[in-house]
Amino acid sequence: MTKTVLIVGAGVGGIATAARLAKAGYKVTVLEKTDRPGGRASTIERDGFFFDTGPSLFLMPPTFAATYAALGERMEDHLDLVRIDPTYRVHFNDGSMLDLSSDMHLMHEQLEAIEPAASEQLLRFIADGAMRYRKSLEQFVGRNFYSFFDFFTPANLPLLFQLKPLVMHYTETSRHFKDRRLRAGFTFQNMYLGLSPFEAPATYTLLQYTEMIEGVWYPRGGMYSIITSLTKIAEGFGATFHYNAPVKRVDTAEGRAVGVTLENGEQLRADVVIVNADLPYAYTELLPGDPAAPRMDKLKYTSSTLMFYWGVKGERTDKLLHHNVFLSDHVYEKSFAEIFHDHLLPTEPSFYIHAPVRTVPEFAPPDADALMVLVPTGHLDSQRDQDFPALQARAREWVFQRLSRIGLTDLKERIVLEETLTPPDYRRIWNLAKGATFGLSHNVMQVGYLRPHNRHKRYKNLYFVGASTHPGTGVPIVLLSAMLIEERLKREQPL
């Protein structure tokens, strides 16, 4: 008899899991609280402007290709990818710039102008990152841990020295580069994970390898084309998606999850329940009275963000590339302390601007530009004075001030469309605990076996997929999360 599966949430993890399980022969139903799939990976489309509201970088293409291949498809048939190079234009506080690129000749010229011998150090840095990337995928990220002894094994002991999980990313980077600008330019990528480079393990030097060797890419249809293609594939295998169907709770009986109750009171039953909601929300709200719920508040959370989506009338400036980072490198450590310890907007925030019209001109009218601005800030904290309208206004003015220093003096006056997201919005719309944009932190005590597990301890047919469970956040990593759930179900809930 075919086993039935209910998936709560149609984020990337829920969609990919639905596609995999439907292909394997499970009868899959996906329940989504909003009116469309994607979760945080959504869009704003208004007046001829198009914005990604979630991820804007396509990294680790082999992982995406493996997902489509597992579904019997070719990634190239669904995604029209463009390699973005330079990957970023990094603006430093003193007015200098660095175009990060896969072109080692270009990197050599730029780095040597900043710090003699830095280009040679970059090669060593990337080589270390390549090793950590490979070993992390093989030993930690790309596998399930069914027991303590799967993780803590004699074979894994050498990895403590190779991956350097107890050394901080900024410290490791400082071994290679002395100039503060280069140290900042090769560590800001920790913010993809909502981490401070002063607290993130040196393992994450692998990020520079992925960007410079595997490359930074962008689909011509925007990041949402990943969502639409995977949803279509899942539906082709028989998975059913129900939208505007918020789940009130996961129902349990006799040591098992038996189904869910919707907000409208409707009850649905299934052999297996998989939750693609933020895991702390799942334990505290969907599983009332669960013994694990009180522990959720003791976990470490990532940062949040202040987001601005600007439709700008007038000439598309050549001062911005597809990806742009503005760093306050002169107060780099202080700014991260303000985010992660004070849970506030830094006094002088660093920020990121996504300008996809450089790659896809159709994302704005011919005489206009579409800019997404991300300003990292602290997550929600009831013990702090967090006046988000005031913080949002300050962040907005700071962005205009920094942009004026590169010659964009009239940007504010040319904005004809503006949408925003703040930490309370992330909690309200996507049920993210503390409004933490990237979910649970990836500090050394919350990775691998030490990260919240992808199956409930008591309810053996209740599983979790997504950014806050193993293996972690980021679209390609969440795709691996879906792969691991498929592996577990075939082993533990066979047809």
Assembly level: single chain
Q: Any idea of the CATH topology of the largest domain?
A: FAD/NAD(P)-binding domain
Enumerate the spans where pLDDT stays under 50 for 5 or more consecutive residues: none
The biggest sheet, with number of strands, parallel, antiparallel or mixed sense and barrel status, is: 7 strands, mixed
Form type: globular
What value does the average pLDDT take?
95
Computed over alpha carbons, the radius of gyration is 22 Å
In what order do the strands lie side by side in the largest sheet? 7-6-15-16-17-14-18
CATH C-level class of the largest domain: Alpha Beta
Secondary-structure-based class equals alpha/beta
Which range best describes the helical content: under 10%, 10-25%, 25-40%, 40-55%, 55-70% or over 70%? 25-40%
Terminal CA distance reads 7 Å
Give the percentage of residues in beta strands.
15-25%
CATH architecture designation of the largest domain: 3-Layer(bba) Sandwich
Description:
- The structure is a single chain.
- With 495 residues, the protein is α/β, with parallel strands linked by helices.
- It has three domains: 4-41 and 223-298 and 443-492, FAD/NAD(P)-binding domain, CATH 3.50.50; 108-214; 301-430, no CATH class.
- The chain is 34% helix and 19% strand.
- The protein has a seven-stranded mixed β-sheet with strand order 7-6-15-16-17-14-18. A five-stranded parallel β-sheet has the order 9-2-1-13-19, with helices on one face.
